[in-house]
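Just wondering, does anyone understand what follows?

——
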Amino acid sequence: MGNASERLQLLYDLSRRLASFDDLDELLRDATRAVREVFRADGTAILLLDDDRRELRFPIASQAESAAAAAKVLTELRFPATSGIAGWVVANGQPAIVDDVSKDERFYPGVAEATGVPTRALLAAPLRSRSQTIGVIEVINPSGGRFDPDDALFLETVASDIGIAYEKADLYARLSREVTSLRSLTRIAGGGLLAIGLMLIVVAFVANLAVALPWSRLLTRPGLWAGLVATIAGGALLQRGRGG
């Protein structure tokens, strides 16, 4: 399996990209492919926990050329979060090394049956956010046929970086929603001020006409100036709400 320099390069590249990535899926596709190549494995996949449905799903998977079709099957596959070695990793928050899945009662055969790719050996590490385990990263069937504790430590380090990536993406999404909400409120406030300002200007004109005062007296009416200020402020808020 991959030597130390390959592993260090992968970790360096992943950490560097974490500082400025703008496409989470692309980052994770590259990371899973690199992990699979380091282990010379048949496949690497990320499983995410769907808390509402208590299921695990495969948003990202990298398969060897001989099993390329399995990647699409995986993206459509779900199974109970309490099942399989991945379910155990989620529940316990610990990595799992299984060199012969046929001898491990935790193994869930449904994934191998759905993809047609037999699983012989499996390594899984938890993906963590600050508060909980959010999923798992798995490697199946390494070229050497077995995993060792150093492999688990390496995959845990990769999993830690991937957990950070998901956390950053979630933060960006929440900030984006908040900005959209603030812009909407700003547009509403701007529209309200603009309407009030125009109304005050109209009232000032009507009042001036009603008592047949000279137009020069219009400039002394507080309502006119209040209306102008409100109109200008409302227009500025509308512009800000549109992102201008």
User: Anything to note?
Assistant: DSSP finds eight helices and six strands in the chain. Helices lie at 4-18, 24-39, 69-75, 84-92, 110-115, 149-210, 215-218, 222-241.
